[in-house]
Amino acid sequence: MSGITSELERIEKEAKTEALEGLASSKEELALKLQSLEKPITIQGLQQILDTTIKCDGPNKVISFLTMLLTYTDSEQINLGFLAESSTGKSYIPLELSWYFPQNDIIKLGYASPTAFFHEWGSVEKTETFEGEKHAKIHINLAKKLLIFLDMPHTGLLERLRPLLSHDERQIQIRITDRTQKYGMKTKTVIITGYPTVLFCSANESLNEQEKTRLLLLSPEKSQEKLLAALMLKLLKESDRESFNRYMESEPSRVFLRARVECIRAAGIKNIIIPEDLRSQILKSFREKRRWLQPRHLRDISRLLALVKAHALLNYAHRPRNNDTLTVNAEDMEAGLSLYEAVSEPNELGVSPEQYEIYKAMQQDGAEGYNIREFQKLYFKYFYKPVGYGKAWKILNNLSSAGLLTEAVDETDKRQKKYFLFRVRVDSPSTLCTPSEYNSSNGENDENYFTGGADKDTSNFTPTPSRKYLEPSDGAVERLGPSEAAEKCEVCGKQAVEYKVYLGGQWLKRCSSCLEKMKASGLRLHYERLTEGETNEV
C-alpha cells in the first residue's frame, strides 16, 4: 500500500512541475511556485480569478467551475443546464471555463442528432454467432469527460441519455436504428460508459420535467452592472485580439488556477466522504427551509452534496486524505450550502432563474391577473425591452406548467385566457388555490397566509387567505378540469360541456351557449368567489 501511495505522490508532483514548466527561471523559483500552487482557495478568491473573463455572474460561474471539477472523481458528477434567451451569455460561461481544463477531456458540440452522436464518438465492435449472424456493438466511453452542448435546439439527445444523467448504471445499453443501402433499417446496440459531466445550453426553456430534474438550472445575469462590464471587456478584446489573448494566456491568477486543475486531475481522487457530524448539520439546514419534502428533493440534495464535495476537491491539499479518498470539513459544508441556496428556489420550483425573475416581477407588480397583452406591458416595464406575443405565451405557459400560474377565462374578453399567480414558496406548503383565492401582494402577509410548520401539528392544516371569501354561491362558474369528461350539455344536448355552474347547492355542467342564456335571464355569473358584502344579484 505504501508503494502505491508513493507512486501517486510522484505522479502528482510531476504533474505540478509540468503545469508550471516554462514559468520559472530557476529551481528555487520553481520550488516557490510549487508551494504556492497548493495554497487554499476560497469562494471569493475563485470568483476573482474567474472574473478576468466572466464579469459578475458570481454563483453561476463558481458553481459551473466546481461542477466541471467533479469530472475527475469516480461518480460525483452532476449536470448543468444553462437556460436563457439569446445573447445573455449562456454558452459563454462554459466555453470560458473550459480554458482551465485539459482539452483532451472536453467534448464541445454545437449540434448533434442522437444517432450522429453515437456514431461519431463510438468505436465499433463486430461479433459473429455460431449460426453465422453478424452483430455490431458501438462502445462510447464518456467517463471523466466534459460534455458541453452549445445552443442545442431540442433535447432529443438528452432524452436518450436520461439513465446516464441520473447515474442509474455506469454502463447503459441503448438500441438505435440505422438505415443502410443494402439491408434497409437495422438495429444497433450502443453501450455508453460513464459518468461524464454534462453542460447543456439552450434558448428553449420548455424542457420536459424529466430533464429539469436531472439538471441544475442556471441563467446568466442581465443586470446593468454586468452588461456594462461585459461591454467594456468586449471592447478591450476586439480592439486588439492578439494582445488580449496573449495577456489572458499568461495572466498569473489564470495560469495558477489552470495548474491547480492539472494537479487535481493527477491526484487521482475517486471518492469524497462527508463525516457523520456534518451530515446531520446538512440535513438540518436542508429541512429548516423545506417544511414539506417533495420527491424531487432526492435529486436536489445530491446537487447540494456535490457542491460541498467540489469545494473540498478544490482544496484537496488541505483536507484529510487516505489514498484516493478525501474528507470534507465544515468550511466545505458552509461553502456548498451558500452556493446551493443561491439557485435552489427556482430549481426546486421547476423553472429557470431567468423565468423565476419574471415571476417575481409579476408578484411585485401586484395586478389581479394578466392576459398576454397586459403581460407584454409588464415585461417592458421591468426588463426595458419588448417581448413578442409568441414568446410571452411560452413564458406564461412554462410558469403555468410549473404550477406558479393558473389559467382562467378573461372576463373582459372570453376569447382570451388570463393568468393568475399562486402564492408558492419553497419553504412553505405549495397549497393550490383558485385564481380568486390568490392575494397578489408581494408577500408582506406570508406569515398569516399559511398555518402550521415543521414543528407544529399540521393534521388540520388549512390556508387562510388575506381576503375573506365566501363558499361558492349561485352563479359561480368554473372551467371543467382535465379529468372531467367533456360530455354533451344537460340542457340543450348539442354542444360539448366546457363549464360548470353552481346552483342550488350543486355544480351543474353547462355549455357556453346555455351559460349566456342563464346570464340573459337575470342571473349574475361570476368567475371569482364572492367576498363579504357582495351579492350575485344584477
Write the layout of secondary structure elements.
Blueprint (H helix, E strand, L loop, with lengths): L1 H18 L7 H11 L5 H8 L7 H12 L10 E4 L8 H6 L8 E4 L4 H8 L1 E6 L5 E8 L4 E4 L6 H5 L1 H4 L5 E10 L3 E10 L3 E6 L6 H4 L3 E3 L5 H16 L1 H10 L1 H16 L3 E3 L2 H13 L8 H18 L6 E2 L2 E3 L2 H20 L3 H13 L6 H12 L5 H13 L3 E5 L7 E5 L24 H4 L27 E3 L19 E5 L2 E5 L1 H9 L18
Parallel strand pairs: 1-8, 1-9, 2-5, 4-7, 5-8, 10-12
Antiparallel strand pairs: 3-4, 6-7, 11-12, 13-14, 15-16, 16-17
Overall mean confidence score, pLDDT: 80
DSSP strand (E) fraction?
A: 15-25%
In DSSP terms (H or I, runs of 4 or more residues), the helix count works out at: 20
Broad structural category: alpha/beta
Oligomeric status = single chain
Main sheet: which strands, in order across? 2-5-8-1-9
Structural summary, described in words:
The chain is α/β, with parallel strands linked by helices and 538 residues long. Among the domains are: 271-349, no CATH class; 353-449, Arc Repressor Mutant, subunit A; 469-538, no CATH class. It contains 20 helices and 17 strands. The strands form five sheets. Strands 2-5-8-1-9 form a five-stranded parallel sheet. Helix 1 packs antiparallel against helix 12 (252-267) and helix 4 (58-69) packs across helix 14 (297-314). The longest helix is centred in the middle third of the chain and has 20 residues, at 330-349. The model is unreliable at 424-470 (pLDDT under 50).
